[in-house]
Every structure is written in structure tokens, then in C-alpha cells.
Amino acid sequence: xxxxxxxxxxxxxxxxRTRLFQQALQKxxxxxxxxxxxxxxxxxxxxxxxxxxxxxxxxDYVTDVISFNHARPPVLPPGEPWAFGDIFVxxxxxxxxxxxxxxxxxxxxxxxxxxxxxxxxxMDDHDPHDRAEMDRQAEKIIATVLKK
Length: 148
Prior knowledge:
Oligomer: single chain
Structural class: alpha/beta
């Protein structure tokens, strides 16, 4: 797995914890992480997450995290890495929600990265039961990554 982390907003340097985000991403992607895939995590501001949400999903509001799965190109040569997905994380929403949920900024940012990875791996959160399961999985992954 190739994981790229982009900080396209004013995320403080002390929160540029690329290796931790990559570890959370790998655990959230589960078996997909063993494949030759590329995943991008892009930290953005409220204006950009709003634009992405409106342009690609038709939702006219700011949100915390958006993930996009990409289909494997049918003519890709064997062994060639392919763009598996992108995860957009809004740092400003993470700051607000960290206080709300009594998390550190880092924990909240990791929650969104992990949540996006779980979506890319096939999990869904359209009903309360599925959402609760995704949250449990994400919290377990984050606890494991932060213990190292």
C-alpha cells in the first residue's frame, strides 16, 4: 500500500503525524492494505470540504470526512499500483468536534482517517447500528496505533 498524506490547510506542525495516520489507514483498510494500492488522505479547510461535498455528493454543507473509492482500471498491468481511494478530512471540524467529544485534536483527526479507511474497505454507516460498529472499529484501531 502506498499512503500519501497531504496537509492542504493550516494544520499545526505538531499534528503532522503522517506515520500515525498511515498506520491507522493501513489497519482500517484491512486486507486491502496488502494489495498494491494507493490511498490519499487530504486535510482540507471548511471551504474545500464544502466544495467537495457539494460538487461530488450534492450536499450543501460542511462535513468532517468524505471518502471516495476508485474502481480498478480494467487494463492495468499486473503488479501496477492503482488509485484505490481518497479521503478528505476537514481539520476545522476535527478541532470543533474534539472539544465536543472530549478527544485530543490528534485523536479526532485519526478518527476521520480511520473512518474513511473503513468506508474504503466496504463498511457503511447509513443506519445507527452500522455507524456504532464503525465507531467501535475506529476507536479500537486508534487505541492500537497510539499505544505503539
